[in-house]
Write a structure and sequence with these properties.
CATH superfamily of the largest domain: NAD(P)-binding Rossmann-like Domain
Number of domains: 3
Low-confidence stretches: 81-86, 372-396
Order of helices and strands: HEEEHEEHEEEHEEEHEEHEHEHHEH
Strand order of the largest sheet: 13-12-11-14-15-16
Largest sheet: 6 strands, parallel
Pfam family, one: XdhC_CoxI
Radius of gyration: 24 Å
Helix content: 25-40%
Distance between the termini: 25 Å
Protein name: XshC-Cox1 family protein
Structural class: alpha/beta
Number of helices: 10
CATH topology of the largest domain: Rossmann fold
Mean pLDDT: 87
CATH architecture of the largest domain: 3-Layer(aba) Sandwich
Strand content: 15-25%
Organism: Cryobacterium frigoriphilum
Length: about 400
């Protein structure tokens, strides 16, 4: 919902009631990830997407109805039995979509959630998407590191969900959790969707060169908060790196050490070392490899530069297990020539590292394109059939 939250708030502030559809669970080759949302405004405008086009029409109609009557709906979409291009997913995937009414009355905490996101404070929202008591479906609990705001219907449910989702919030995870009707951890009957709105992951680019400018643009496009750092003030200027969120003039290893000490990097952080100068990159890589584990550490350079860099790091006492974490030379073999093409090869490797991709052409793979993320079989929602019609039954 992060991408469309400003549109949601626009109607919320004027007292309108809109329909908000959110993907709360996916199976197999789902076209959009969990958390993808589509808003149907009171004026009939559609913002965002839940399926990339496959079932948008049906979800739009459902969102319009929910905006009118305020009754939440949980529905499952898969491939239509008769025609995969009817109201179904032609990709063969399955998605669970929760549609709720959003207004000042149904979601009073929404503006404070936006304030947290704007300020870079981690915040998450737990929403009941299934419950034996229909009046509790759609209730929200806002979860912050310092406490919760909202009410899921009972103190026990608030306590259990608040405690369990703190771990998800700390790692930026979005997930669906199951409980008993009053929050019993070993029970069934209540399902809660937790959306985590943590600050975007960081991409730290060291070396103020042309490739850094292209990489900053690519990283920003992928949703990273991009920092370009270089010790040379004449090169590290905001004018040269318009795609970066910030440009820092500092010795790279000192800057990264300060970021570690301040807790401003985490396991989602990506570090790309483009300096290919031992006086910069060797001490920087020492810091990167000896600090908390990062999502990706890549270093630019020729084979000769790589071998010399590894030798220097070994002499500095860096172990083989740590050295194995360095992607060097960084990027995939795409035959890149320009800075922009090289940036694509680098972010392609970052994506592959994040999701376990092989980097091989999809046409040569002997397996499904999108591996199943959850090995457990899907459990159909109690409110819908396995292959729902365009107008599914209401929750409860």
């Amino acid at each position: 919902m992060r991408q469309i939250l400003s549109s949601v708030l626009a109607g919320w502030r004027t007292g309108e009631r809109a329909g908000l559809a959110t993907v709360v669970r996916t199976f197999e080759s789902a076209p959009m990830p969990v958390g993808s949302s589509m808003l149907v405004t009171a004026g009939g405008q559609a913002v965002g997407s839940v399926s990339g086009g496959c079932v948008e029409g049906a979800v739009y109609e459902l969102g319009t109805q929910v905006a009118l009557d305020g009754q939440p709906v949980l529905v499952r979409y898969g491939v239509s039995d008769d025609d995969a291009f009817a109201v179904g997913l032609s990709c063969g995937g399955i998605i669970d979509v929760f549609v709720e009414a959003v207004s000042r009355q149904t979601y009073p905490q929404l503006e404070s959630v936006q304030a947290d996101i704007d300020a870079g404070r981690p915040v998450g929202v737990a929403t009941i998407i299934e419950h034996p008591d229909p009046s509790r479906v759609g209730r929200h609990l806002v979860v912050r590191q310092g406490g919760t705001d909202g009410n899921l219907g009972s103190p026990r449910a608030n306590q259990a969900v608040g405690d369990d989702t703190l771990g998800l919030l700390a790692t930026g995870r979005t997930d669906t959790l199951s409980y008993g009707p009053e929050g019993q951890r070993l029970g069934v009957g209540m399902r809660v969707f937790f959306a985590s709105f943590t600050p975007p992951p960081r991409l730290l680019v060291f070396g103020a060169i042309d490739l850094a400018a292209a990489l900053a643009r690519a990283g920003s496009f992928l949703g990273f908060r991009v920092t370009v750092c270089d010790a040379r003030a004449v090169f590290a200027t905001p004018a040269r790196f318009a795609g970066a969120d910030e440009v820092v003039v500092a010795w790279p290893h000192r800057y990264l050490s300060e970021q570690f000490a301040a807790g401003l990097v985490d396991e989602r952080t990506v570090v790309c070392v483009l300096t290919h100068d031992p006086k910069f990159d060797v001490p920087l890589l020492e810091v990167a490899l000896r600090g908390p584990r990062l999502a990706y550490i890549g270093a630019m350079g020729s084979r000769r530069t790589h071998d010399d860099r590894m030798r220097r790091l070994r002499e500095a006492g860096v172990g083989e297990a740590e050295l194995a974490r360095v992607h060097s030379p960084l990027g995939l073999d795409l035959g890149s020539r320009t800075p922009e093409e090289t940036a694509v090869s680098i972010v392609a490797e970052i994506i592959a590292e994040r999701w376990g991709g092989t980097g091989e052409p999809l046409g040569t793979l002997g397996r499904r394109i999108h591996p199943e993320v959850r090995p457990s079989p899907p459990r159909p929602p109690a409110t819908t059939d396995a292959a729902p019609e365009p107008h599914p039954s209401r929750v409860g």
